Amino acid sequence: MTYRMKLWVGAGALLSFAGGVALATSPAPRPESLQATELPRHKVPVSKDGNLVVGMCDGETSLEVKGVKEGQSLTREQAARVSAELMETWLKKNPDANWDPAPPPGVAQGQKQAPQQKNPPMGTQKPATGGDIREGGVTAESGGKEVRKEAGVNIQDGHSYGAFTQRDEAVWAASTQQFVDEGHRVFHDAAAVGGTIAVSCDMCHPDASNTHPETYPKYQVQLGRVALLRDMINWCIENPVRGKPLADGDPRLRAMEAYIYAQRKGTKLEYGKK
C-alpha cells in the first residue's frame, strides 16, 4: 500500500470515527415542556341571553355585558368600564395579591421618583442624521452603509463598539424611543393589537403596570409551561382581548415588548420570580 493510499484510508477511518461520535452524542429530544404545543385557552361562561361575556386572564373572573351581543364589539368607554369592574371584582377576591398600583402618568414603573421626559407625538421624531428610522434600528443618509475614518481605520457605522460618536448615540436613542412609542400606541389601541371586543391591554395594565417583564422567563400557570414575556402578551391577546396571537417577528409584538420593558427601566432582573 502506497503512502498516499494509507493517508486516504486513515482519513476515512477518522471520518467514520467522528461520525460515530456525532451519532452517539447527538442531543436528546427536547423536554416536552419546551416543545411547541397549542396553548390552553380559557372558556368564558355562555350567556343565556346571548350577551357578550368578557373574561379576565385568571380564567375565573368574568362579566356579562347586557345589551351587547356575542360577536359585537364594545365601545372604548364600555370596555374601560367592564375592565375596571373585572379588576375590582378580582381584587376583592384576592385582597392579599401583590398587585402594584398604576404609576402616575408619565412615570416609568422602575423610576417612580423621576418622571419620564415627555416625548413628541408618534411620527414627529426625526433622527439626528435626517435618515429614515426603521424598526429596532436606524439608517444614516446612505442607508446604514456610510463608512468613516477614525484613527486611520475605516469603521462602518453601527458595527463597532466604542467607535461611535455623539451623533450616533442621538440617532440610536431616537430610534429606540420611537420603537417604544410605537409599543405604547399598540398597547393602548384594541384595534391595533387585533382585539375584537374593544378591550385593550392598558385597561387591565395601565401604563404596563403589573406586567413585571423583569421576572421572565418563568413558569406561567395560564400557559402550563415556562414562558417568555411575548408568550404572555400573545396569550392575553388571544383570551381577554379576543384577538389572534401575533407572530414572533410581528412589529407590533416586538414594539409592545419593548414598551413594557421600558416601563420597568432600572428594576432588578429576577427571572423566575412569581
Percent strand equals 5-15%
Categorize the overall geometry: globular
Average per-residue pLDDT, rounded, comes to: 75
SS summary, helix count: 6
Amount of helix: 25-40%
| CA(first)-CA(last) distance | 69 Å
Main beta-sheet annotation: 2 strands, antiparallel
Order of helices and strands: HEEHEEEEHHEEHH
How many β-strands, per DSSP? Answer: 8
Which structural class matches the secondary elements?
alpha+beta
Numbering strands along the chain, what is their spatial order in the largest sheet? 1-2
Radius of gyration computed on alpha carbons? 26 Å
Uncertain segments are 3-27, 112-155
What's the helix and strand layout?
Elements lengths: L2 H22 L26 E5 L6 E8 L6 H18 L39 E2 L2 E2 L8 E4 L2 E4 L9 H22 L2 H4 L24 E3 L4 E3 L1 H10 L12 H12 L12
Antiparallel strand pairs: 1-2, 3-4, 5-6, 7-8
Describe this structure in words.
By secondary structure, this protein is of the alpha+beta class. It has a domain at 133-175. 32% of the residues lie in helices and 11% in strands. It is built from six helices and eight strands, in the order αββαββββααββαα. It has helices at 3-24, 76-93, 166-187, 190-193, 229-238, 251-262, and strands at residues 51-55, 62-69, 133-134, 137-138, 147-150, 153-156, 218-220, 225-227. A two-stranded antiparallel sheet has the order 1-2. A hairpin with a 4-residue loop joins strand 7 and strand 8 (225-227). Helix 3 crosses helix 6 (251-262) and helix 5 (229-238) packs across helix 6. It starts with a helix and ends in a 12-residue tail after the last helix.
